[in-house]
Design a protein that fits this description.
The strands form four sheets. The protein has a five-stranded antiparallel β-sheet. A five-stranded antiparallel β-sheet has the order 4-5-6-7-10, with helices on one face. The protein has a five-stranded antiparallel β-sheet with strand order 13-14-15-17-16. The protein starts with a helix and ends with a strand. It is rod-shaped and about 145 Å long. With 583 residues, it is of the alpha+beta class. A hairpin with a 2-residue loop joins strand 1 and strand 2. It is built from 14 helices and 17 strands.
């Protein structure tokens, strides 16, 4: 008989376990677990536990007028997850249903089932975490079912009949219900842990997304409005290997005419590197703005970062300050990759002596270097995630491939340059995973297009030198022959006028400055002679014959006709005549 009882009870328990696992793994109850909905959670868990108890009744079997089943698992489970309210509701539902089935143990089962649900709920209120321990839940199941059989012995008459029933079912009844409840607790505990892990992962993912937004907000937004200077074309790009990374770049004005460019790479990855990156970026910017010497600013920033570097992190950094008027840049490298410098059609790595990394050691001395940029010259800063990008064969992208990205780059924007590099890296890497951050910062110097200046004595015999100076600049600018001839005629007219009339026969100088922007050439003539504005003279009437027309004025008239713009100003005791020509 015992084997038959075991078989039937185990089969019913298995079904209840499957149902409980489905309920525990779904959102049927979880959406009511908020504090303001606890009562709903208790009621629903009680109803579900009562339903499991009813199933236990229906699938039980009759033994001498007693219905032997695993109904108690439902109320015990409801008490565990829904507290006393859940336990008593499940006990009442399962008990009342048991009462409708009749039999000599009906009333005793109602009392026992309700008490077991209530006891389980009260224990869950005080010892919920302890109930999750399997030995405790098993012991609770054993004691609960022993209590159930004790109620049967007390309430069922005659006693001999009750005792006979208890003797036959005691071991399988207690064991199956206790094991079933224990497995239920294990399933519910496991699903709770998994749900908590999913929620924690979702929370962390949300926080990482916020951290990504914050990190990118710390970087300057490069656009037409910023830096907002015609002298340079700037673009930047950053793609982190994780949600947040340790790479950074910065572009900021030191003063109205000097702009700083920097790129850095913090050791490590993830949130710690991002936090140290933010500290390093702000420290560097403050030091560079406050301390005139770049080398001293770097030394001060290094000591500051060392002083609060409990995580023993470090930063490789390249920083340069560009004078927009002269094109001269002062720069320092602290263990970082050498930038790619492009002048004309030649691209090469900027040779410099590398200093020690930042935050690695106190009192490091950093050496300044200088470079002069001409119009059209390019500087591309990058982190090692570019050159050390791996393909599926574990081959590095490398320096040579990076330099090839700058072949034939004339007349392209900084943004196009970075896009060219990024596309080359992506094509090389293919389907391989990105293991490091990719960060690049590029600028093209456009200001004062090869600004050249010549100062000569204001004498006609120096005309050839002046024309040669102008031709040299125009040839470098790929000026068409027709425009060059028109410019030469204008230059000759203006210089000869300065040499003939500006100083009234006395010695003096003429200063010729040539500059350009995109397809326009600007030539400025300056002399300290007698104030005179040639543009005030009325244009000659060229419809008249030379015999009738008033002498003079034809030369400056031709200058105005051949040039796109001619202007005059008298500043600081100098005549300044400026001509512009689109080439």
């Amino acid at each position: 008989m015992d084997n038959t009882i075991f078989t039937k009870l185990i089969g019913t328990s298995a079904v209840i376990l499957v149902i409980a696992a489905f309920i525990g793994g779904s959102d049927i109850l979880s959406k009511y677990m908020q504090s303001d909905k606890k009562w709903k959670y208790s009621v629903i868990s009680g109803i579900l536990g009562g339903a499991l108890g009813i199933y236990g009744n229906l699938s039980g079997f009759n033994l001498n007028g007693a219905v032997v089943s695993v109904r108690d698992i439902g109320p015990m489970l409801s008490g565990f997850v829904g507290g006393p309210v859940g336990g008593i509701i499940a006990g009442l539902i399962a008990g009342i249903h048991r009462l409708t089935l009749g039999g000599i143990t009906a009333q005793a089962c109602v009392v026992a089932t309700c008490c077991i649900g209530l006891i389980s709920g009260l224990l869950s209120m005080k010892r919920h975490e302890q109930m999750k321990k399997l030995y405790f839940s098993f012991l609770l199941g054993v004691l609960s079912e022993a209590f159930h059989l004790g109620i049967v012995l007390i309430m069922v008459k005659p006693f001999e009949t009750a005792l006979d029933i208890v003797k036959q079912i005691a071991v399988p009844f207690i064991l199956i219900n206790a094991v079933g409840f224990t497995l239920m607790v294990a399933i519910i505990t496991y699903t709770e842990k998994q749900r908590s892990l999913v929620e924690e992962k979702s929370r962390m993912q949300s926080e990482l997304e916020v951290a990504t937004v914050i990190q990118h907000s710390l970087l300057p937004t490069i656009s037409e409005n910023y830096p907002g200077r015609k002298e340079i074309d700037v673009s930047a790009f950053m793609e982190t290997a994780k949600e947040v990374g340790g790479d950074f770049y910065d572009v900021f004005f030191v003063d109205s005419n000097r702009i700083a460019f920097e790129i850095g790479d913090v050791s490590g990855k993830g949130v710690p590197a991002a936090l140290f990156m933010a500290t390093a970026k702000m420290t560097l910017q403050n030091c560079i703005r406050d301390i005139p010497s770049l080398s001293q600013a770097m030394a001060t920033a290094n000591n500051s970062l060392c002083a609060r570097n409990e995580a023993d992190m470090f930063v490789t950094l390249w920083v340069g300050i560009l004078d927009l008027s002269s094109g001269e840049m002062t720069y320092v490298s602290a263990g970082h990759n050498p930038p790619v410098a492009v002048s004309g059609d030649k691209a090469d790595f900027l040779k410099t002596k590398n200093g020690f990394v930042l935050a690695g050691m106190e009192d490091v001395i950093y050496k300044e270097n200088t470079i002069k940029f001409n119009s059209g010259d390019v500087l591309c800063l990058y982190t090692d995630g570019v050159t050390e990008a791996n393909n599926s064969d574990k081959e590095l992208f490398g320096d040579d491939r990076l330099l090839k990205c700058f072949d034939g780059i004339r007349n392209v924007s900084a943004e196009q340059l970075l896009s060219n590099v990024k596309n080359s890296v992506d094509e090389f890497v293919g389907d391989a995973d990105q293991f490091d951050d990719l960060t690049m910062l590029c600028f093209i110097f456009k200001g004062n297009k090869n600004e050249d200046k010549l100062t000569v004595e204001a004498k006609k015999e120096n005309l050839d030198e002046v024309i040669g100076f102008v031709d040299g600049y125009l040839e470098k600018s790929d000026c068409p022959m027709k425009a060059q001839m028109q410019i030469n005629l204008a230059v000759e007219e203006i210089f000869v006028n300065i040499a003939s009339y500006a100083y009234g026969g006395k010695n003096g100088t003429a200063e010729i400055t040539m500059s350009g922007e995109e397809n326009e050439v600007t030539i400025t003539f300056a002399d300290s002679g007698i104030p005179y504005n040639p543009l005030e003279k009325e244009d000659p009437d060229i419809s008249l014959s030379a015999d009738v027309r008033e002498i003079g004025g034809l030369g400056i008239f031709l200058v105005k006709k051949n040039m796109d713009n001619v202007s005059y100003d008298y500043t600081d005791g100098k005549n300044i005549l400026t001509i512009k020509k689109t080439i």
